[in-house]
Amino acid sequence: ERAKGHALVTVMVLNSARSGASEQSRLAPTMLIVDECHRVASPANSRVLSGDFVATLGLSATPQRDWDNLFAEVVEPGLGKVIFRYDYNQARRDGVISPFALVNVAVKMTTEEQRDYDRLSQRLAVATKRDRSGQDSDAIKALLRKRARVSALAGARLPMASRLVERHRRERAIVFHEDINSANILAGALQARGHRVGTYHSGLAMGFRQDN
């Protein structure tokens, strides 16, 4: 039976669940369901799994973690093996997601950008080869972020984005950029070409952001 005074379903954010989930399991037979379950692999978050649960279920679009073995060491022992997979192809066939086309457009880097990208790639190759145990995973992730930023801030990206929007004039479009300053520059360039442009990012006041 349900413990007196406690709801049949308790929804917790991960920080609260670190202690709250195990406490809940002591009050009544409890099934633990963890959304974004790859996140419970960290030392702090793994406390979520310490309760006495009658059943467990994990949900994640990316259950296997990059650069460490913590899915096999923490997530799978705590929540169980993967029992069901649902990919984009299945979702498209079922009509769960809208049809889409993915087109990659290449732009050239400057000599300096290419040099920085290649240098980080070489460091990444060395770090990955050296890291057999997952101990340097944070360093590898940092190198990946730095290399991705070189690509994201490549100077040729903004003119190409502007040209692509021009091709689809009078159509509605969402243009995403990883960098706020670059997004503002692109918005200004498009406005100068006569496009109606709204921007949305964390640097805007909440009311203005909601209006956009």
Write the layout of secondary structure elements.
Layout: H1 14-27, E1 31-35, E2 55-59, H2 70-79, H3 88-94, H4 111-130, H5 137-152, H6 157-167, H7 180-192, H8 206-211
Parallel strand pairs: 1-2
Helix pairs in contact: 4-5, 6-7
Would you give an account of this structure?
This protein has 212 residues and is mainly α. The protein has 8 helices and 2 strands, in the order H-E-E-H-H-H-H-H-H-H. The protein has a two-stranded parallel sheet. The longest helix is centred in the middle third of the chain and has 20 residues, at 111-130. The chain is extended, with a radius of gyration of 23 Å. The mean pLDDT is 90.
For the structure shown, list the relevant keywords.
212 residues, mainly alpha, two-stranded parallel ribbon
The backbone outline, from C-alpha atoms, is extended
Q: Output the radius of gyration.
A: 23 Å
The largest sheet, given as strand count, sense and whether it forms a barrel, is: 2 strands, parallel
Write out the strand line-up for the largest beta sheet, numbering strands in chain order. Answer: 1-2
Give helix % range: 40-55%
Portion in beta strands: under 5%
Poorly predicted ranges: none
Q: List the secondary-structure elements in sequence, H or E.
A: HEEHHHHHHH
Compute the number of strand runs.
Answer: 2
Distance between the termini: 49 Å
> What oligomeric state is this?
single chain
SS element count, helices: 8
Instruction: Classify the secondary structure makeup into a structural class.
Output: mainly alpha
